[in-house]
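Re: the request from the purification team.
They wanted to know what the chain is likely to look like in 3D before they choose a buffer screen. I agreed to run a prediction and write the result into the notebook, where they can find it.
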Amino acid sequence: MRLIYNFFRVLFYPLIILANFLQNNFTSIFTPMNMGPTGEEYYSNFIKKNFYKKDFVLDFGCGAGFFSKLFNPKRYLGVEINKSFLLISKKRNSQHKFRLLKNDYLKGYENKINYIFINNVLHHLTDKQIFDAFAFFKKKLNKKIKVFIIEPLIPKTFFSLEFFMKVLDIGDNIKDKKNYIKLLNKILNIHSKKVKKVSIGSILVIKGNIKK
């Protein structure tokens, strides 16, 4: 399936580039392209029930701020590398704090954050970038840090809408369950892992804490 998936990624590369361009340059119009099932209430409720009110959440790769409303503005920091997404986040959720992902993005929050939320982000990163990000968390955050990760899984069948939707995703590093677990076991103490059906596809949900 991986070979077939990669073949269609190459075949549809111009469409993938177009989707990326539209999201980056016309964010306010094309935000639905970046939402997937995230706009559905059941998905938001599923996320919210995994956090306590006392948690101070780092939303790593917060996108256009779809989930910031689920968290207490005084106990939330959204971080994003895409400047267009960040502007939308700040306009939609003026009470929440957002920062551009750069060298000092955790400054002032080192002793506050105890939970990292990573939703549909890792498949946009190389393994090295993931290791670097977690090494930075480990270095900067002083508490025992919990992590909640949601990632799309590479489809198991070719004849499905899910397959073509994920082929057109701008993330280049989508994995199957086995390879996500293999990667994340190197940086996390994994407490739970499960596959969940959402909308037209499947996601992997992982909870754990950063290894010391």
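For the purification team: Residues 32-36 have pLDDT under 50 and may be disordered.
Please add any questions underneath this entry.
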